[in-house]
Amino acid sequence: MTAPASGPVPASFLPDAEGWVPAARRVPSPNFDERPAGMPVDLVVLHNISLPPGQFGSGDIEAFFQNRLDPDRHPFFATIHQVQVSAHFLVRRDGELVQFVPCGKRAWHAGQSDFFGRGRCNDFSVGIEIEGSDDLPFTAAQYATTATLVKALRAALPVQAIAGHSDIAPGRKTDPGPHFDWDRFARLADVPQNLLPFRPPHS
Ligand SMILES: [Zn+2]
């Protein structure tokens, strides 16, 4: 399901009691575990991913997050097919929303990371992968879906910040990359400046 470009949060984007979003196509990943008891989920982390690198729409991201990536399909896959990772969400190029892990569980998306002195960002974050690369613009449909999802997450969770993977793992990660337009996203998602601690204030 894709999202409207603006307006109120559609009920279908609000996570249910477990943290599944009804608007998302559900592709369950085994790559998750429990969040620490009582820890508020107060960070959203934005990523980009493409598999094979630079190619879109293959279905390989879903296979990767379900530990069924075919190592013979691409040379790169042979190097990563045994890596167990996931994210809560994927926003595909056409804006379709896919969910792998319910928001109440700890998805394995950030790896070694630090948010202003707090390590283990997977413990307290929701991870959103946007299908793309560091070299290409994202689509209007992706901005719309990502913005609607973040609005819904803010309505459901005590989100205090939205960060890029590169912000919490600098030197190790570069996503969502230079083509992710944070201002455009913030406008669409009605995200105030104080929730974007890594972005310079608007002039
Ligand atoms: Zn990432």
UniProtKB/TrEMBL annotation:
Domain N-acetylmuramoyl-L-alanine amidase intervals: 29-177
Keyword terms of this UniProt record: Cell wall biogenesis/degradation, Cytoplasm, Hydrolase, Metal-binding, Zinc
Gene3D superfamilies in the record: Peptidoglycan recognition protein-like (3.40.80.10)
Any single GO CC term annotated in Swiss-Prot or TrEMBL for this entry: cytoplasm
GO biological process: cell wall organization; peptidoglycan catabolic process; peptidoglycan turnover
Iron among keywords: no
Cofactor(s) essential for the protein: Zn(2+)
Similarity comment text for this entry: Belongs to the N-acetylmuramoyl-L-alanine amidase 2 family.
Protein name from the UniProt record: 1,6-anhydro-N-acetylmuramyl-L-alanine amidase AmpD
